[in-house]
Amino acid sequence: MFKDQQRIILHCDCNGYYASVECLLRPELKDVPMAVTGNPQNRHGIILAKNQLAKDAGVLTAETIIEAKRKCPNLVCVRPHHELYAEYSVKLNNIYLEYSDRVEPFGIDESFMDVTQTWQDFANSPKDFADLLRNRIRQDLGLTISVGVSYNKILAKLGSDLKKPDATTVITENDLESIVWPLDISNLLYVGKVTAKRLRAVNINTIGEIAKTDPEFLAVYLGKIGENLSIYARGLENSEVQKYTELDEAKSIGNGQTFSEDLISWPKINQGLQGLVAEVTNRLRKSNKVANVIQVQLKSSDFQVFSKQTTLTEHIQNYEQIWPVVQQLIQELWDQETPIRLLAVTAGGLENKDQVYTQVSFSDLTLNSSDDFDKSAPDKEFEKQKKLNNLVYKLNQQMGGDYLKLGTE
């Protein structure tokens, strides 16, 4: 049961979204193993989504087409229809908005809902409400969703991932120890391959072990991401679900660059990211904004787009604060093999600096910069670049402007 003062948060996640929408377009695809892919003529194209038959054959999202067809020779590959996916995304959110004005998309096929004040009007319990919503989506749109129900966004998201397809999972505060803590760390939002490897290196393998680890140790060992994971694992995340009508406001500042040659090494990737982070921080300072959501996006040489983001416990603005977070995200995102055509960095969750900014000492920033990223990936060249960035940043601070910038080849 939920406590009287607790919020009721839902995370609604469409099952095999791209593939499901394609099956609405071509119903015969439901009866064959199929996948939505990049260019089928390009052997490096990857699996973007697959239906249940393909999943049962062992096909995995993000693996190459050639790998998938080794497992499933009769796999039917179809090109994506992104305009159609966007159209159905709007339809999904419009249905959610019939039940609450607090609907916050978390991607094209996922949304958070805060139904604390409204679920009683439609059902006898939060679980019954989630089941009603699942049935409504199935009947009206022909799609299925999995719904996580909890008292915060992180646990609601975890719940929707636990049972698929077309299922409801409820996680209350009393379920933390019995349901959440025994789960592998990979089930917790924002624990990617690199972070998981570092946690396992110090014998932290379950969410419960994250929760029981000294938060100060995690903060030093993993930086800001470690602080966040400790909060998430203990069930203490408390960010609000935004109102859908507020999402049109400028809530992010981003910058991207398409490169004339594909990037295939850490030094080149770091060089590209440095310019993007510098531009984003410049724009944050000029607009007097601070951010608590950092996102990194890359587009591969075959035009597939991947992104990863993290939500911080405090708002930040400076280069030295944002850079280590970007480094952590790119290391989680890039497989160290795929050629990169485009990079983008976005700062979101913007607020006015005067209202929320808390001064952080330069020594704290230096500690986070050195501790936040995986030392096994960037090499000595990156260390030189990082020191140069620090020097440029400090000189600009002393001169009161953005007079110095790093040059590029």
| Beta-strand percentage range | 15-25%
Cα distance, first to last residue?
60 Å
Which geometry do the CA atoms define? globular
Strand order of the largest sheet: 5-6-1-7-8
Count of individual beta strands: 13
- CATH topology name of the largest domain, in short, is Dna Ligase, domain 1
The CATH superfamily of the largest domain is identified as DNA polymerase, Y-family, little finger domain
Low-confidence stretches: 357-380, 397-403
The tally of structural domains comes to 4
* CATH class wording of the largest domain: Alpha Beta
Query: Which class do the helix and strand fractions yield?
Result: alpha+beta
Count of runs of 4 or more consecutive helical residues: 16
Give the averaged pLDDT, no decimals: 85
Task: Indicate the radius of gyration in whole angstroms.
Answer: 22 Å
Could you give a short account of the major beta sheet? 5 strands, mixed
User: What is the architecture of the largest domain at the second tier of CATH?
Assistant: 2-Layer Sandwich
How would you name the oligomeric state of the polypeptide chains in this document? single chain
